[in-house]
Structures are given as structure tokens and as C-alpha cells.
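Side project, low priority. Logging it here so it doesn't get lost.
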Amino acid sequence: MLEKARENTRKLGFTNIEFVKGDIEEMPLPDNTYNVVLSNCVLNLVPDKTRAFSQIMRVLKPGGHFSVSDIVIKGTMPEKLREDAELYAGCVSGAIGMDKYIEIIEQQGFRNITVHQMIKTSLPADLLSNYLTEEETERFQSGDSGIYSITLSGYKN
């Protein structure tokens, strides 16, 4: 994926983008260096989200920001679904509650945190029927509880 990203950068003529292989919980990058950190459906799979956002804060310049698209949970997610490997691969099982997600970001010192987009994600009925009763499925799918795709940003002072 890194080589593909580099190739696309060359094709488009961008010269101010660099891709580095590393662990987001221990970024091999210098402090206070970057204007923007981007992530797309990755942080929900990271075991230590606090450490990941701490590293993002560390590498950003003052005034820099992150922009993240990720999966979060509102309400409760049945444990049977959390343990499903297919859902893990689909970025769902590693998701945490939206309030907790934002709290972690705030605790790292980010300001002006904005949720730009929030879209409820549906799970196929046949997948749900493998784990939940009809009543549990109906309860899970009704109301505001569920799985959401969010896009948010925050700034380093």
C-alpha cells in the first residue's frame, strides 16, 4: 500500500507528501513537525487509542490538526457481535463508544474538536441472525443505538 500511495503521489505530481511505515502507537516521526495527520478507518482497530492520539499530538506542529474517519458505537453493541471476526475485519469490533472516543481525544489536549459527518451503518440481517434473536436484532436496529461512521477533526494549540 505504501508503494501504491507513493506511485499515485508521483502520478499526480505532488512533492510535499511523504508516506512512512510505522506503528501509530509509536510513530517513527519527529516531534512538532507536521501540519496534518490523516487516518481512515484505522484507529478503531488500534488497541491503545489513548497512545495513538498522544502520538498524533506529539508529531503535529502547534496549530496543526488531524482529520479522522472512523467507526464508533452509540449505545451498546451486543457482545456476540463484538467477538465476530468478520466484523473485526470490517472495522466494527474494535470500535468504542463515540463519547469515549471524543473523551480520549480531549484528554490528549486537542481543541476545536468537530464531528463533520456521522452516518449510521447497517449490518446485514443474515449476519445479525447468526448471533441475535429476532427481538435482539430489532432492539439493536431501532433508535439511535448502533454503529456509526464518523469524520472528525481536532487542533493542537
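Brief comment: The radius of gyration is 18 Å.
Revisit when time allows.
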